[in-house]
């Protein structure tokens, strides 16, 4: 039985993508990185979850939480924090 509240629905073959269909959300996937340094730049709010996860799994002997992962700010502040940390390492 058709939906009485839906006034219009395209009739497309299964091999044709409907451009008006709702888009699916992000599909998470696990990625393994073989690297000496990983820098994540992902938005304007502080998110220390990757840092805490790395700390919990002991992924490296030294792990630092700086920049927007620690507190959202400007690029200048992040660069200064990175420089200050780099001079101490």
Outline of this structure?
By secondary structure, this protein is an all-alpha fold. It has two helices and no strands.
Keywords:
25% helix; mainly alpha; single chain; elongated; 89 residues
**Secondary-structure-derived class:** mainly alpha
List how many beta strands DSSP finds.
Answer: 0
The radius of gyration over CA amounts to 22 Å
Tell me the fraction of residues in β-strands, as a range. Answer: under 5%
**Total count of helical runs of at least 4 residues:** 2
Write the element-wise H/E pattern from the N-terminal end onward: HH
Unreliably modeled segments: none
Main β sheet profile: none
Please, what is the average pLDDT?
81
Distance between the termini: 68 Å
Helix content: 10-25%
Q: Specify the overall morphology.
A: elongated
What does this structure look like?
- With 89 residues, the protein is mainly α.
- The mean pLDDT is 81.
- It is built from two helices and no strands.
- InterPro entries: FAD/NAD-bd_sf.
């Amino acid at each position: 039985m058709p939906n009485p509240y839906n006034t219009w629905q395209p009739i497309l073959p299964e091999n044709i993508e409907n451009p008006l269909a709702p888009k699916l959300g992000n599909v998470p996937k696990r990625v393994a990185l073989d690297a000496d340094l990983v820098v994540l730049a992902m938005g304007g709010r502080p998110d220390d979850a990757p840092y805490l996860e790395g700390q919990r799994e002991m992924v490296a002997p030294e792990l630092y939480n700086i920049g927007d992962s620690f507190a959202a700010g400007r690029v200048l502040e992040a660069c200064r924090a990175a420089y200050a940390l780099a001079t101490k390492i």
